[in-house]
What does this fold into?
Amino acid sequence: MIGYVNFGADDLAAARRFYDAVLLPLGFEVEEDDQGLSYAAPALPGQRSPQYFYITPPFDGAPASVGNGVMVAFEARDQAEVRRLHAAGRDAGGRDEGSPGFRAIYSPELFIGYLRDPQGNKLALYSTNPADPTRDG
It folds into this structure.
């Protein structure tokens, strides 16, 4: 299990608009302090602690940069939620990096959309729910 992931950001207000639009509907809770933003995933039964996603200015004081090949994926409940959150992320300052749809190259069940946050970090929103009433195909 992953305990936490951290992305760097130079503009925390822009990052908060984006990540609030994408993560709060998934049940994450957010806290902001002088270190940055802390998003806690809903704890699952049997988990010792929730998983965290942090957005902070880089600790070394240098400008934030994007990792080539780095991406974080967040699971949505169904395809409709993938579509909604992808659109909400674009509306909140994100950039489309791949519209929601099936990616058979990975799995015939994988419905996924890709975004870049305002800093340029890449994330994915996906669903593999075969019982999804909104399921395409």
